[in-house]
Amino acid sequence: MKKLLGITGLLLAVFVVTTLLAQQADGSNSFLTAYNLQNLLQRVGMFGILSIAAAFVIVTGGIDLSIGAVVCTAGCMLPWLLKDCALPPWLALPLVLLLCAGIGLWHGILIVGLRLQPFVVTLCGLLLYRGLMRWFTNDQTMGLGSDVEGLRWLANGRIPITASFGFPVSALILLVVAVLAAVFFQRTVWGRHLFALGRNEEAARFSGVATGRLTILAYVVCSLLAGLAGCLFVLYVNSAGASSFGNFYELYAIAGAVLGGVALRGGEGTILGVVLGSSLMQVLAMAIVIVGSGNQLEFAIVGAVILLGAAADEGVRRLLRRRR
Amino acid sequence: MTSRAQDGAPPVLEVVAIGKRFDGVQALRSVSLQLHAGEVVALIGENGAGKSTLMKVLAGVHQPDEGSLRLLGREVRFADPKAALAAGIALIHQELNLCDNLTVAGALFLGRELRRGPFLRKRAMDRQAVAALARTGLEVSPHRLVSSLAPGQQQLLEIARALHGRARVLIMDEPTSCLTDTETQRLYAVVRELKAQGTAIVWITHRMAEVLELADRVVALRDGEHTGEIAGADATHERMVAMMVGRQLRSQLRPAHPPGEVALVVRGLCTRAFPRASVDFELRCGEVVGIAGLLGSGRSELLRALFGVDRAVAGQITCCGVQLGGHDPADAVRAGLVLVPEDRKLQGLVLGMSVRENLSLATLRARGTFVDGAYERDLCVRAIADLAIATPHGEQRVAVLSGGNQQKVVLGKWLAAEPRVLLLDEPTRGVDVAARAEIYARLHELAGRGVAVLFVSSELPEVLALADRCLVMHQGRVEGELPRQRMSEAAILTLATGKGVA
């Protein structure tokens, strides 16, 4: 828990600074409004799921660069199944998730069976799935139209709490996913084994842990969650164009996880940290828009803050070690 | 065959009363040795006798604590291997040490490339490489990749590399350990040629046949001391073993357990390291059996194949009536067979995790999907008490424990699985004396309860003290089996050095 202090502090600092800056800009509290908070939570919901997806593979010591491409795949396939194939939502959604889980299975088999490097496998996946989707959709934007409003509630719905504030359904979905993932990590034998193999795969194998199957499972869960987030994203914006939908999302996902304390060398991290980390990414993105320091600078600011976070994290760790 | 040492010519290299300590362990004690131009000196001794340390001192890898080195009568001190190499002393390691992504010429000239300004003079290097290779009888294109060469060719390339640096003294640490017979013969011829040209050669080996074939003189080390020297012509297998052994037999007799029913049957097992050598043996409940043999004789590979970490090439394994084969460690554990591996830090423990998590790692799965916290805490408390693991609490990271306590954690992890066959690979390597005694006591106790114990050890006193009987391996085969009353260091070494086949 001590490790999460840094990230929580950073999150609060960004909140305070943004609020102050926004106040200075137009004299009123224009950042901490119910409307902004709703939007923020909605986006945190979707990107948080992506970061949890990334955390599953990073904990094994691997990486998944194809998360954005899987988001794109789900984003294009869901409208196609709903509109062009006219499937009912209760069939279309599971089909898309199944397809995405299949992509994860394919990654896992290549990585475990053929011993290919996760970086290579998923980098090729990044190019492959987006390319296939562009060809499949002929670069046409896949729209949902207006007759799936019921399904869109998953991404846009709000559970009213006060007159002006409703808790977004997507954030609720993140909450469910996060609790399940946390239970898996902390309370199940598989989670324990996943962390053990992330730290020392050989020792885990010598202890009778089914390292191969667990690694495959991690990639399946990762792509499945990326697919779920992809569905939410397309329901959120109502359409998806294969050439740009989900671009760079793998980097947001990985950055959120790493910022939240998931070590890239494997075997370390908590789901709470991941959720906090990806929240920070979204708060930052929104802060930039509201303070209006120019959208051109967005990437630069995000990069600088992540770097700062990583450096601070390392500094705190060294300080704790010296104290011991 | 006599050496050319006569006629009062000064030795090329003289080692005078060298001593070397590591962390309180006396690795070398007042060792003296003379090397003359054009002679081959074979250096023999058990594992850990100090051969490699001595060679590393000569090659500048280690600096001696006492004594001195004299090169052509002048006292020298090598700060690092580079200085030794510059003085003409080249060490060829046991494991091949080439960057195999380079070309032959590139590897040959690595670190001393010919160049014009910042540019490599590739053509000049290629030309010189061909000449240098010819000296060792290696006929390959300088453009070939090192990785495409056979191990024997790589060995010759290493020698070419040493000679190209104008080596006067060539030290070879078990040079034939990864060579085929033909390659070995080729190497012999090259060594004889070099000898005729006046190079002094130190040949470290475990194989008696090589000593008889090549050596002008044989020097033996034991426990870091020079224990004997004979002329190559007078060398016999028995005399060499006598020089290497000679230690007092420290037999801690224990009540022999009457062996019970058969626990493990191994038939025709071939490991990947020695695909053509097959192993057969049986292990009974309540027996403690040692596997002795020299480094690289296939002992660890045998245990790994039994446990299922490595796939066996062929053979049948039956553990307590359960057929194993093409199995993975989880299958072995279910059948009651576990392995305490050789490398505790790499294979035995997840260093970043706590004592508790390490202890339960192997048995948690059998207790359901969710982590059984009560079981885990209970196991942890019991193991810490039973094995006297010195740790403040179970949440301590296992990385900070001493070697002996880490080993107890590995043992505790497997005892939790209630094995019927316990395999151990070097169970007391890097373990202090007290923990060692506790581990021995625990193994006896397990045998008394009917567990079959099979352990690999490079320390002969350990084998003599622990084992009811002993299998001696050589080149992937069980060269012989010794019952307790016939076990002695001499008997084991005779088998381990391949007396039967040499």
Keywords:
heterodimer; A: mainly alpha; ABC transporter involved in vitamin B12 uptake, BtuC; two-stranded antiparallel ribbon; 74% helix; B: 502 residues; alpha/beta; Rossmann fold; six-stranded mixed beta sheet; disordered N terminus
Describe this structure in words.
The complex is a heterodimer of chains A (324) and B (502). Chain A has helices at residues 4-26, 34-59, 67-84, 89-113, 118-136, 149-156, 169-187, 189-199, 201-206, 211-237, 249-259, 271-291, 298-323, and strands spanning 141-143, 158-160, 166-168, 239-241. Chain A is mainly alpha-helical and 324 residues long. Chain A has one domain (35-310): ABC transporter involved in vitamin B12 uptake, BtuC, CATH 1.10.3470. Chain A has a two-stranded antiparallel sheet with strand order 1-4. Chain A has a two-stranded antiparallel ribbon with strand order 2-3. In chain A, strand 2 (158-160) and strand 3 form a beta hairpin. In chain A, helix 2 packs parallel to helix 7 (169-187). Chain A is globular, with a radius of gyration of 20 Å. The mean pLDDT of chain A is 90. With 502 residues, chain B is α/β, with parallel strands linked by helices. In chain B, 32% of the residues lie in helices and 25% in strands. Chain B is built from 17 helices and 22 strands. A six-stranded mixed beta sheet of chain B has the order 6-9-10-3-11-12, sandwiched between helices. The A-B interface holds A 186-193, 195-196, 199-200, 202-210, 267-268 and B 307, 309, 328-330, 332-333, 339, 341, 346-353, 357, 361-362, 364-365, 367-371, 413.
